[in-house]
Amino acid sequence: MNIQDAQKQVDDWIKNHGVRYFNELTNMAQLTEEVGEVARIIARRYGEQSEKESDKNKDLGEELADVMFVVLCLANQTGVNLQEAFDKKLDLKTKRDHDRHHNNEKLK
């Protein structure tokens, strides 16, 4: 599935199950909340914080999917073609960062 297909799938889901999109500010708050849940798992599972018993069954993939869902909602409701924006960003990063990363001593 490409990003355009994902945007359409989310839009169809909202129309069939969600009544309407939450407003942009509500979705931004939701995105922040979901990113916080991802950060908690990463910090405790892969970082230096100890993982609480209640966090051990948290599914990182599910939390990342929550982030993706809200990002797709925000793109839809603000008229952003995320496929086009992503392709443009990847092209920019490829041109800008290729040599920079290959020449970065910290990455060797």
Topology:
Layout: H1 3-18, H2 24-45, H3 60-78, H4 82-102
What does this structure look like?
It contains four helices and no strands. It is mostly helical and 108 residues long. It is 72% helix and 0% strand. Helix 1 packs across helix 3. The two termini are 34 Å apart. It comes from Tenacibaculum geojense.
Short description:
With 108 residues, the protein is an all-alpha fold. The chain is 72% helix and 0% strand.
Regions with pLDDT < 50 over 5+ consecutive residues?
A: none
Task: Note the run of SSEs as H and E.
Answer: HHHH
Q: How many helical elements? A: 4
Helix content, binned percent: over 70%
Largest sheet, in brief, is: none
Defining key terms:
YpjD/YvdC; 4 helices; 108 residues; mainly alpha
